[in-house]
Amino acid sequence: MEITPEIKDRLLRLQEKYAAMGQDLNAYLDGLLYADYLTYWDYIHLDTLLSLQHPKTSYPDEEIFIMYHQITELYFKLTLHECKQIAGNASLTADIFATKLKRINAYFTALVSSFDIMVDGMDKEQFLKFRMSLLPASGFQSGQYRMIEIYATDFTQLVSLAKREELKHATIKEKFEHIYWKSGASELSTGKQTLTLQQFIAKYAAQFLQLAEDNVHTNFSALYRSLRQRGENMESVEEELRKLDLFVNVEWPLSHYKSAVRYLERDPVDIAATGGTNWQKYLPPRFQKRIFFPYLWTEEQVDQWGKSWVMNVLKSYRV
């Protein structure tokens, strides 16, 4: 093979690169010579990935349940990958912001559109049996999902609706005591924190508080205001922020609500969700009124937040 000027140039640049680290180029060339060819299955650790499903029962559809939640967490990781790049970009522009938000919304489009797997993709009787072996574990305990919320908005918007105005100027730690999702994991009979919630707080509270403190000025809402004050055209960003608001605060919880209605609603007494969460009051968006960017919506839209979606679900999925 002819050693072209282009190849010589690359060899010189490689030599400079490794010399700067006190390394010998020849050693790295030997490494390339002796290394095996890369395969697809090794690159993505396919065998390991396919071995990560460990059902607790013999019911076949439990494996569907596990895999879907694993897929969900991978989408959340993709979302957080974009969140970190937005919050950590010291040279952020409206165009970059909008591009990253479009990626996030694409991930949530896939998540919401695929949730029928959980609504109709499992045998109901199997689910009602294998779910009892999962206690007190619950999808409620997704730390990545809570991190996405923290990256998205001012922490005040994550405070329970009844305390939101009162704690508007409180510290993040004080607000965290009344964060909305704590009310979704209280015992139905006593109102006390479930073990599900206690486990969750013990594992993630410090991490959530630190993330909130670190992003006081770099959450999406704060960055939007900053870029707008600089005079940038925010139309594309506003469009994507509204989509994100609907995905995370209406469509995604409503998808879970569909599943809960399908599997857990039973007259005259509804079945408690895994971990004892009060899903009837916790999941419907109209009760929580959790809105990341209320200034991007009209008063009427805020007042009717999620209401029509919930009513349609009740009509379509009542069992």
From TrEMBL:
The keyword Nucleotidyltransferase does not apply. GO terms for molecular function: heme binding; L-tryptophan 2,3-dioxygenase activity; metal ion binding. InterPro entries: Trp/Indoleamine_2_3_dOase-like (IPR037217), Trp_2_3_dOase (IPR004981). It comes from the Bacteria. GO terms for biological process: L-tryptophan catabolic process to acetyl-CoA; L-tryptophan catabolic process to kynurenine. Keywords: Dioxygenase, Oxidoreductase. This is Tryptophan 2,3-dioxygenase. The lineage of its organism: Bacteria, Pseudomonadati, Bacteroidota, Chitinophagia, Chitinophagales.
